[in-house]
Design a protein that fits this description.
This protein is an alpha/beta fold. It contains 8 helices and 9 strands. It has a 6-stranded parallel beta sheet, with helices on both faces. A 3-stranded antiparallel beta sheet has the order 5-4-6, covered by helices on one side.
């Protein structure tokens, strides 16, 4: 079974009603990065930071996977699919994708603020348990924080993702500007012979690759076209 690598960004979830961070009227316009997505912000005002992610969890629980998510999941019938996402939502999993690597963390998880990547202290939030209360602590006694990779923090899963990128027989990019590193550099790990498909309605520069087939559509329309190509329909 051929190995299919799918890298997704914020544009993957726009049709599900989730705001992007960088576009006009994106989340960063209303909630500056420096206040909600840096380690310094967390140290300065952990309650404000947790409240922001409490709000995002409620928005996520009201969202549903779109057809793009479902079509990515459906490719598992014919391909060995690895999804690497820059998104912190769980819509790929909800749509049925079985192998999803999150680069920037997971919104529905919280963790220790002292030992972020220790799964022993992770807590998976649910529909009835979306909020981290002020002063709430993880199992190691530190404040509970979102399991999100803040700006300036290391991306623990990037080396794992790079390994899968190197093994890919087909490389697909959906809904990302390829401006955010290290995720944007993953396409450089694809073998020169590996076909690269890019789904995004806007012009995107795939760093280091000049042979990219660009499908200038949104996630769902683009995945319909790509599914036809990959499944020979």
């Amino acid at each position: 079974m051929k190995k299919l690598f799918v890298l997704t960004g914020a544009g993957m979830s726009v049709e599900s009603g989730l705001s992007t961070f960088r576009d006009a009227d994106g989340l960063w316009e209303n909630y500056p990065v420096a206040r909600v997505a840096t380690h310094e912000a967390w140290l300065q005002d952990p309650v404000y930071v947790n409240d922001f992610y409490n709000m995002l969890r409620k928005k996520l629980l009201a969202a549903e996977p779109n057809e793009g998510h479902r079509l990515v999941a459906a490719l598992e019938r014919e391909y060995d699919v690895t999804v690497v996402t820059q998104n912190v939502d769980n819509l790929h999993e909800t749509a049925g994708s079985s192998h999803v690597i999150h680069l920037h963390g997971e919104l529905m998880k919280t963790c220790s603020s002292r030992d972020v990547d220790n799964p022993r202290y992770w807590r998976t939030m649910t529909a009835g348990d979306t909020d981290v209360a002020p002063g709430e602590k993880a199992g190691d006694g530190s404040l509970l924080r979102p399991y999100i990779v803040f700006f300036g923090e290391a991306v623990p899963n990037i080396s794992v993702a790079a390994d899968y990128a190197q093994q890919a027989d087909i490389f697909v990019i959906i809904g990302t500007s390829l401006n955010v590193y290290p995720a944007a550099g993953l396409v450089q790990y694809a073998r020169p012979s590996t076909p690269v498909y890019l789904i995004d309605p806007k012009p995107v520069m795939a760093a280091g690759r000049h042979d990219v087939r660009h499908i200038m559509k949104g996630a769902s329309d683009g995945m319909r076209e790509l599914s036809g190509i990959l499944l020979g329909k």
